[in-house]
Amino acid sequence: MWSVVERGRGMPVVFLHGYPLHHGMWQPQLDALSNEQRVILLDLPGFGLAAAETVPDSLAGFADRVHRSLVDRLTAPVVLVGHSFGGYVALQLYREHPEQFRGLVLTDTRSSSDSPEAREKRMSLVQRLDGPGESLDIEATTRGLVAPTTWERDRPLVDRVRAIVREARTPALRGSLTAMATRPDLSPVLSTIGVPTLVVWGEEDHLIPPAETESMVAHIPESVGVGIPGAGHLPSLEAPSPFNSALGKFLEQISSR
Fold it and tell me: What is the mean pLDDT of each run of 10 residues along the chain (257 residues)?
């Protein structure tokens, strides 16, 4: 199923959302970039427009779903933009199908696998969500996604993020949490990336330390890194102007090659 929001013509740029979000996190990029590019916001299985789809429980399963969607609908390589969990999926997909890539953007993500402590925490949440009447802590999850300044001063944006988080269904939460907890160390993939790559991080990201995201730049041959001041885990929403500026320049460079 092609569970996307799509706008524009030109070079296809496919956006993969993070956990526990959906395509709505990319609305500012859809508005800003679709005059020049074919912007495709793809929902991962279980989320957003793909809420009714069967949810994998492995990173390879999510990557295979993206691969099949791209093969079914697109004939040319794409620029893939992956945020957080979507970044894990993008790296897994590059490992398996590098021919599908014209460029890569990794934002607020990491290449390493979970630590034992992080893995245990995720799986404990999976077990809790299996219980009757159990649900995600919407408020705590929303607060963790944004910078403290955003939380205090931008209530409309916080409300917007909260609404997206609230839409996440339990099967999608369980499957993606299990996939993240059991994902392999994808750090060896970095040195094999043979397409232009942009790495972006919010400088106030408290979920994935900015230093972890930034560290990937040194290992990807043709890459540049950009930190977004004042943004937390969601620079695409919290600071859309600098985020779109960096992404737009990167896409222009790829288009002109």
Answer: 87 98 98 96 97 97 97 94 98 98 98 97 94 88 98 97 97 97 98 98 98 98 98 98 98 92
* pTM value surpassing 0.70: yes
Domain count along the chain: 1
Residue 33 is encoded by which pair of tokens?
Answer: 């970039």
What is the span of the domain harbouring residue 239?
4-255
DSSP string, 163-192: HHHHT--HHHHHHHHHHHHT----HHHHTT
Q: In angstroms, rounded to a whole number, what is the distance separating the alpha carbons of residues 208 and 143?
A: 14
CATH of the domain at 230: 3.40.50.1820
Please give the Cα distance from 63 to 44 (Å, whole number). Answer: 9
Q: DSSP secondary structure string, 199-248?
A: EEEETT-SSS-HHHHHGGGGGSTTEEEEEETT--S-HHHHSHHHHHHHHH
